[in-house]
Amino acid sequence: MPDRIPAAVKRCSWAGTDPLLTAYHDAEWGVPSFDDRHLFEMLCLEGAQAGLSWLTILRKRQGYRRAFANFDPAAVARFDARRVETLMRNPGIVRNRAKIEAVVANGRAAISLDGADGSLARYLWRFAPKKRPVRGRAAGKVPSESAESRVLSKALRDKGFRFVGPTICYAFMEAVGMVNDHLATCFRYREVERLRGRRPPPQQS
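Predicted structure:
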């Protein structure tokens, strides 16, 4: 969490409606992530959000971590039909069979990436936009998908991932810092840009 945030700072409009959203916006959203487990978590959680609010998912985030082995892809890949049935009775997560089975499928897809693909981080970050916007977004100008998210969506589906449509992929790219969609007026925009410039994405093998 950034230190000493003034009470009157300007944020993206969606971040000021709930303390949990505010904390997520101020500390995590848009920060470049190259950690395989965190990337797997965010990809699965963005899929779980489909048709729901992000606040609903944030409120269940700890429940998801407990239910899905702290998002260890290798552990999740071993979940069987009996485990899925148990998860269908778990109030700590969204009890939607297709979404639960998608997390298991995503674990299997993640561990099936071969040497040519590299780690999950290396694989995902190759789809990040090559050019950064000159300045932050304006209100009403944030897209719901992009050319890159459409390419990422197709690539992930070809690998066996589920609940990875272009809109979900774009939300994922925003969350993990592949794009910086903090508004130009948001106090986090410049801070996230500095983080993006300081830590380059993993090199491809």
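Summary: Residues 117 and 123 are 6 Å apart (CA to CA).
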